[in-house]
Structures are given as structure tokens and as C-alpha cells.
């Protein structure tokens, strides 16, 4: 029997990083992964829209002894000055 793979879900949200009950994405993705039958229960981390914290989370999960087979990232995209999404930064001229 094949062993289950490891998945991780990174939620990037200022609001949900302050109050995790505001996040709905992890709750929506977790049953999808479970239904596949190939994945261990997903690790979930919520970080604010902060580049070093996002980078650290991705590095933690993709390099070193505790890596994951699948890393899913989810973020809301708004047209705010703090949004670091390249497409948004180009659109609002930041």
C-alpha cells in the first residue's frame, strides 16, 4: 500500500492572521484533499501579507527535513497599497 503524501495550505491574509476564524479557504480545501484519499491531514498556516513571513513559510515547507509534497497558497487580492501581488502592483502603479 502506498503511503499518503503530505500537503500544506498557506493562507495569506492580514485579517485572518489576526483572527483565524475569518479564514474559509483551509476549511474548503481540507475536505477536497481528504476525499482524494492520497493526503495526510494538511498542515495549515496563516500569515499576514508580509513578504518575509510568506517566504519563510514556503521555505519551511519546501526545503529541509520537514518538506511537503504539495504546498497550496491562497490569498485575497485587493487593490490596496499593501498588496504585493505583482499584477496588482503594476495595475495601481506602485
Q: Return Rg in Å.
A: 15 Å
Low-pLDDT regions: none
Structural class based on helices, strands and sheet pairing: alpha/beta
Share in helix: 25-40%
Write the element-wise H/E pattern from the N-terminal end onward. EHHEHEH
Number of strands: 3
Strand percentage lies at 15-25%
What distance separates the N and C termini?
52 Å
User: How many DSSP H or I helices?
Assistant: 4
Oligomer: single chain
Largest sheet, if any?
A: 3 strands, parallel
Main-sheet strand order equals 2-1-3
Taken from the alpha-carbon principal axes, the silhouette is flat
Name the average pLDDT. 84
Task: Describe the protein's topology.
Elements: E1 7-12, H1 14-18, H2 25-36, E2 43-47, H3 51-62, E3 70-75, H4 86-92
Parallel strand pairs: 1-2, 1-3
Describe this structure in words.
This protein has helices spanning 14-18, 25-36, 51-62, 86-92; strands spanning 7-12, 43-47, 70-75. It is an alpha/beta fold and 94 residues long. The chain starts with 6 loop residues before the first strand and ends with a helix. The relative contact order is 0.23. The mean pLDDT is 84. The chain is flat and about 45 Å long.
Features:
38% helix; alpha/beta; 18% strand; single chain; three-stranded parallel beta sheet; 94 residues
Summarize the structure.
The chain contains 4 helices and 3 strands. It has helices spanning 14-18, 25-36, 51-62, 86-92, and strands spanning 7-12, 43-47, 70-75.
Amino acid at each position: 500500500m502506498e503511503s499518503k503524501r503530505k500537503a500544506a495550505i498557506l493562507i495569506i491574509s492580514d485579517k485572518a492572521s489576526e483572527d483565524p476564524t475569518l479564514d474559509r479557504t483551509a476549511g474548503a480545501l481540507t475536505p477536497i484533499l481528504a476525499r482524494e484519499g492520497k493526503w495526510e491531514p494538511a498542515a495549515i498556516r496563516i500569515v499576514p501579507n508580509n513578504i518575509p513571513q510568506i517566504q519563510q513559510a514556503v521555505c519551511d515547507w519546501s526545503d529541509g527535513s520537514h518538506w511537503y509534497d504539495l504546498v497550496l497558497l491562497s490569498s485575497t487580492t485587493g487593490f490596496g497599497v499593501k498588496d504585493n501581488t505583482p499584477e496588482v502592483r503594476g495595475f495601481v502603479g506602485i
